[in-house]
Every structure is written in structure tokens, then in C-alpha cells.
Amino acid sequence: MCAATPLVFRRLMNEIGSVDAVGVEERVAKYTTRSIKTASKVAGLKLAVSMVDLTTLEGKDTPGKVRALCAKAIRPHDDLDCPAVGAVCVYPSMVPHARAALGDNSPVNIASVATAFPSGQAPLRTRLAEVRAAVAAGADEIDMVINRGAFLAGDYNRVQDEIAAVVEACGDATLKVILETSELETYDHIRAASFLALRVIRPGDFIKTSTGKTGANATLANNQVMLEAIRDHYFATGDAMAMKPAGGIKSAKQALHFLVAVKETLGDAWLNNRRYRFGASSLLNDLLRQLVKMETGAYPAPYAFSEAAGTY
Questions:
Q1: So what's the pLDDT on residue 170?
Q2: Which of 53, 143, 155, 286 is the catalytic position?
Q3: Active site residue: 65, 72, 176, 244, which one?
């Protein structure tokens, strides 16, 4: 951080309160010990399916792969009674192909990463142009990255001004603001960045942990810090914001732990895909495997499920 940052940071933390790191880690450790009965587990697994942003963000993405992803998003499994996922998440160039595959009345939204994802290192006008292009192509949701360099330099006005500009560029599209928690390094920084975003975005917009492109992504602990920021902001303003942990959540067991965190921190009003999502590519298949096991007693192998279209 630059020399001016500690004073600016202390002022913000005096206003919003710092994070008890030990308390957060003790709290999230307890989430992993909760016992979930069979009926509740099935409901939780299906809820998690509905919260998945089924994602492909690779340089080798093709229109065919995106079409297959959309088919799986609408009907994750041919035999299970489970819902469609919340959204498919693709690069802006793939948005038209997703829109063509899903149509205009699909229960599955189209999310697009933008603002020079994942680095955010492009001129603001370029980042805004990318947002507008993605929305014009049919994106229902935009996942933006904040300017982490500006945040770490203590230039909080710039961070907020840029988020506000993206909000305007989104029009009616929902915005998800990616903090990239691993690059923020401390829980206090994560809380501070959360509040900077929460004070600029609209009710129903999201804050999001990660791009999934760094070595460390969503954890129960950084998720908890952000959930508590959403809770405190809600108590102060009455504005209900949404949350998306992304990257590294691969198992159904993990997803259930995250849902326990939501229920115990924000309550049942956040247990839906309008207020909580999982950014994931491989999570959906493990949720389906667990649902098959709950229904049939047989635990299918991972290779029995496709990466994209159809079912096993």
C-alpha cells in the first residue's frame, strides 16, 4: 500500500468496524459440523443446483461448447427431478451463442464476465464498452472485476466511481462485483471492499469473491466476511444485496456448508438464486451425483457425467 493508504483505510474501518479473524474462522468451522437430515439434504442439493452459474471461461471456448452448456443448464439431468441452474456464465463473445441456444424466455439467465476480466487492467472506457456490448448481445447479468490496484493504493473514490459507471452501463442487467479476495489479502480489506461496492450497487446486485483465475478462490471464511457485510449493510439501509462465492467450490458437501452459512448469517430470505449463486464449472456434476445416490442408493462415478450437454 502507498504511504497515504493507512490513514484512509483506518477512517473507513472506524466507520464500518474491523473483522475478528479468529471469530470468523471459529464460526465457519462450526458450519462444517452441522447435521443435515435426509429430506433437508435433498432439498439443499436441489437448491444448490438452482444457484449454480454454470461457467466456461476458456480461450478454447466454441459456439458448440456454449450450446451444449446451455442444454445442460436448462435440463441438468434427464431422470432427476431437479431445477435448471441459475445462469450460464461466458465471455462476451459467446453471449450471442448462449442467447441463441436459450432463447428469450429461458429460466436460465446469461451472465457475462466483463471489464477486462480477470485483471481489470484496461482503460475504463474500454471496460465500459465491453459491458455495453455484452448487454446489447443479450447478457442478463454482468460479472465485473474491481480495480484492485486502486483499492490497495487507497483510492477508494476511484474504485466506487468505476463501479458506479459499470452500474450505469449495465442498464437493466444485474451486476456482480468481483472483489478478487485472494489479492486483497486480509479480512479487513475484504470487508472494506465489500462496503465500497455495497454502497454503490443496486438492491439485487451481487458482490462476488473471485474470478476463479487465481490460486486462491472462495473459502467459507471470505464468504462469511462478505455475508456479514451484506447483513450489516441491510440492517443500516434496508437494501438487500446478493452474494456469489466463485472458484474452488467443487463438491456438494462444500456447497451445503456454504448454504448453512447463508441460512445462519442472513436467513431464509437469501436462500434462493436471486440472492445467492455459486460460480462453478464442476460443482453441478457432484450435486447431481449426490442426488442420484440419494434416490437410488448407488453412487455413480464422476466420468458417468458429461462436462456439458446431457446427462450420464
A1: 98
A2: 143
A3: 244
**Eight-state DSSP code of residue 83:** P
Distance CA 291, CA 285 (A): 10
Query: Is 188 assigned a catalytic role?
Result: no
CA–CA separation, 156 vs 152, rounded Å? 9
Q: Is 143 a catalytic residue?
A: yes
* Residues 201-234 pLDDT 10s: 999 999 999 998 987 889 999 999 999 999 999 9
Residues 6 or more apart whose Cβ sits within 8 Å of residue 109: 86, 87, 88, 140, 141, 174
Sorted by where each starts, the structural domains of the chain and their CATH numbers stand as 5-304 (3.20.20.70)
| Burial group, residue 128, by CB count within 10 angstroms (0-12, 13-18, 19+) | buried
Which helix (DSSP H) or strand (DSSP E) does residue 268 occupy?
none
Give CA–CA dist 199/158, Å, rounded.
13
Q: Is 65 noted as a catalytic residue in this protein?
A: no
Phi then psi for residue 142, to 5 deg, are -120, 130
Q: Which of 72, 140, 208, 286 does the annotation list as catalytic? A: 208
